[in-house]
Amino acid sequence: MTHSIYPALRFKENAKTALEWYCSIFPNSQIIQQQDTAVKAQFAGVPFVGINSGSPFTTNPSISFMVICESRSEIDKFWKRLIEGGSALMELNQYPWSDYYGWLQDQHGFSWQLYLGKLSDVNQQKIVPTLMYCGAYQGQCLAALNFYQSLFKSFRTQGILKYTEGEFAGQVQHSQVIANDFTLMAMDSGVKQDFEFTKGISLVIECENQAEIDYYWNGITLHGTEDWSSWCKDQFGVSWQIVPKNLWQILNNNPHALDAIFKMKKLSIQDLIQAQ
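^ VOC family protein, sequence as received from the core. Prediction below:
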């Protein structure tokens, strides 16, 4: 399946090497395209982009990647590789929500949750980005989901579970949605955190035409903020990149297009094609 939404991982300078490492870990993975500053790949059939930012960036578990595994041995295999040079956030063990589960941060600073479950429960999407609303955005998960439902042209909620006791009773403990055929999970943190979303991980929306770029850009920035080079941030702190579906083709056809991107906020397809 071709997804119009997928995650982008930000690196200082080693995006290609890092993405090749992930490809060596997950089956059905490969580098698809590459430019000087970005590399596109798929991990277990799920698209990812790695971006060389050339400057320091920050990552934290506010966005992690839930890997759905159907056997303990599969979890053990992924855990052994992903934790190389990284650290455990929650050790592999049995938990109330899964008979076998662990949460780790890898050597590049990105977080992975390994979960024993069924692919049929996540629409056969092996890796599911998981948004955790915390810090200044604690308790705003449900409002964010309502906003995304109004934003995306195709959106379906597949379940919302709320905390029933404690300080965060009534907030979202876990939710699963499908936005434009891409499965996402979201939650409010169950404990207070001193971090929140950063540009270290963003979500890319590929658009069919300029009208779609305008639609998503205007919708996200209405109560959010504009940034440069296709980046914007919604009112809940999540960073998005709004790009044309044929961006890689434009970059390949016009060597001046990349420089033009750096001078834009919202991207103009026509200006990219005609850049000199």
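The first helix runs from residue 15 to 25.
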